[in-house]
Amino acid sequence: MTIYQPQSSAAASKPQRDSAYKTALAQFDRAAQILGLESGLYEILRAPRRELTVNFPVKMDNGEIRCFTGYRVHHNTARGPTKGGIRYSPQVDLEEVRALAMWMTWKCAVVNIPYGGAKGGVVVDPKQLSLRELEALTRRYTTEITPLISPEGDIPAPDMGTNPQVMAWIMDTYSMHRGYSVPAIVTGKPLNIGGSAGRFEATGRGIMFTVREAYRTFGWSFDGIRIAIQGFGNVGSITAQTAHEMGCKVIAVSDIGGGIYNPHGIDIPKLRRFMKEHRSVTEFPEGDRITNAELLTLQCDVLVPAATENQITADNAAQVRARMIAEGANGPTTPEADEILLENNVVVIPDILCNAGGVVVSYFEWVQSLQQLFWEEEDVMHRLERIMVRSFHDVYETALRMDIDLRTAALVLGIGRVAEATRTRGLYP
Ligand code: NAD
Q: I need a surface site. Which of 7, 292, 307, 354 has the fewest CB within 10 A?
């Protein structure tokens, strides 16, 4: 038997950083003021509807029992069941999950799909676990949050640190408890158990559909534009691949270990093949090594932060030399940075519009799972592009009409739609 030894907890060893929730609330307050939301509605929309914190044990490979903490937050259900990813990261805390759940509510409303917002997370570095430990953690976490998830009520999906395999374990665990297969309990599943064609690619493709439409709308030339991408996971790598296929030049990419820069354009298909056997993009030989901080301030046309929150802040926003920021990550820019970027005429395509492709195709996957009827990838991509283009124009026209920036316009549009649904439904009892 191992005797308990006090250790510094993940929370205690976490570096101080801006709270994503503070950012989400500041953004909400600004949009609510512009909308002139009545005070009751303001309070309803500002607060998470329900929150669950779970502490649960997992037996590790060495026989020891370790306790983990996880969360699931439902922000709002006015427009439908809640939808939102599950994040595995040592940095996860309740405030971050609250922020991400709130952004999901506005995002689903901006792209006009019938969902409210949710998010989940477990405080863990998945890279430190064996595959068996990861599976055990996932199955136990799923069981712990079962009171909140269901195919009709709340449907999880992948986020940072989770992937289609984790979704498969969630689906299997939930199905074992029910006694029959429930594929609609999660989206982002592998194709062979009812996932949707195009779901894995959806967020990155959606980002590039939006960037291309913005360029078209502004009358800017899209040919051969230079793109820098922070983060090379699901979102970053597919954004890079799509940009490459669209004829753009991806001049820099990074991951948590640092980045690489090649002014002639990185061979993205080659890098993606290379990454199947290597842990970090920094090991790729065809480029100069740079830091994440350097990547964010590179001279380029489009900067895509696709890693985590609070990357563009009051400290570095003035040094951003991109013409456009396309937010792949959720909450990568702080409100202070937004003001600086606005002053410097840097166009910001906000997260709740730009990275919504993931939840759009998750919605398609959910519909397919409920009906047990599957669509071709071409059909999925065509519908995705149509929704991203339409949503960009909805936001852009709101911005023009109200003389506000694109982030504020997206928030006004999304929050306005949720407010409208709340008024229509009325108050129970
Ligand atoms: P992922 O785990 O697949 O990849 C994350 C990438 O970011 C990795 O390359 C990692 O090394 C890097 N990274 C992590 N922390 C970093 C840091 N501090 N500095 C630099 N790089 C760092 O995650 P993902 O699914 O690609 O998600 C990335 C972001 O996109 C998150 O903000 C997530 O909420 C958002 N997002 C994801 C989806 C989706 O469908 N997966 C949809 C919408 C938004």
A: 7
Asked if 160 and 215 sit in the same domain, the reply is no
Task: Round to whole Å and give the CA distance between 302 and 389.
Answer: 18
Strands 65-76 and 116-123: antiparallel
254-279 tens-digit pLDDT: 999 999 999 999 999 999 999 999 99
- Whether residue 424 lies inside any domain: the answer is no
Residues 6+ apart with CB under 8 A from 214: 324, 347, 349, 392, 396
Tell whether 229 and 174 lie within a shared domain.
no
Low-confidence stretches of the chain (pLDDT beneath 50): 1, 4, 6-16
Q: Residues near 416 by Cβ (< 8 Å), separated by ≥ 6?
A: 35
Least Cα distance to 233 among 328, 320, 138 occurs for 328
Question: For position 230, which CATH number holds?
Answer: 3.40.50.720
Residue 302 β-bridge partners: 227, 324
Q: Is the CB of 187 under 6 A from ligand 1?
A: no
Q: Which of 159, 274, 362 to mutate to test the pocket of ligand 1 (most atoms within 8 A of CB)?
A: 159
Contact between 311 and 230 under an 8 Å Cβ cutoff? The reply is yes
Q: Is the pTM of this model over 0.70?
A: yes
Question: What per-residue confidence (pLDDT) applies to 11?
Answer: 40
Indicate if 261 and 172 belong to the same structural domain: no
User: What confidence score (pLDDT) does residue 9 get?
Assistant: 40
Task: Name the DSSP class of 312.
Answer: B
Residue positions annotated with a catalytic role: 119
Report which DSSP code applies to 15: P
Question: CA-CA distance, 41 to 44, in Å (whole number)?
Answer: 5
20-46 confidence digits (pLDDT tens):
999 999 999 999 999 999 999 999 999
| Most ligand 1 atoms within 8 A of CB, residue of 88, 256, 291 to mutate | 256
pLDDT of residue 3: 56
Which among 176, 202, 207, 205 is positioned nearest to 187, based on CA atoms?
202
Q: What angle do CA 306, 88, 290 make, to 5 degrees?
A: 35
Q: Helix or strand or coil: residue 404?
A: coil
Domain boundary among 280, 314, 349: 349
Ligand 1 contact via 394 beta carbon (within 6 Å): no
Q: Decide whether any atom of ligand 1 lies within 6 Å of the 232 Cβ.
A: yes
Residue 282 lies in a domain: yes
Q: Is 306 in the pocket of ligand 1 (CB under 6 A)?
A: yes
Q: Which two tokens stand for residue 266?
A: 């990185």
